[in-house]
Write a structure and sequence with these properties.
With about 80 residues, the protein is mainly alpha-helical. The chain is built from four helices and no strands.
Length: about 80
C-alpha cells in the first residue's frame, strides 16, 4: 500500500494543488523515510515532478534535504544514477 501511495503522490499533489503542501508534506516525509527500496526508488524518481509543482522556496526548504538524504544514503547507491 505504501508503494502505491509513493507512486501516486505527484498526481495527488497535482489534483489538490500546491497550496495543500503543508498537509501533504508530512505524508511525503513519511514516504521518503520508508525503508522499502521500491518506495525509495519511486520517491527518488518522482522528486523532480513534485518540485515542478511547488514554489522554489518550498523546494529549497523541504525537498532538497530529502534529495540530499537519498543521495547520500549508501543503501540507495544506484537509485539516483
Amino acid at each position: 500500500m505504501i508503494y502505491y501511495c509513493a507512486f501516486n503522490f505527484p498526481a495527488v499533489l497535482l489534483c489538490y494543488g500546491p497550496e495543500t503542501w503543508s498537509v501533504l508534506k508530512q505524508v511525503y516525509l513519511l514516504l521518503a523515510n520508508e525503508r522499502d527500496k521500491k518506495v525509495k526508488i519511486t520517491i527518488a524518481s518522482s522528486i523532480a515532478e513534485v518540485a515542478a509543482l511547488l514554489d522554489d522556496s518550498i523546494v529549497e526548504k523541504d525537498l532538497l534535504p530529502i534529495f540530499d538524504k537519498l543521495y547520500k544514503d549508501e543503501s540507495n547507491k544506484y537509485i539516483l544514477i
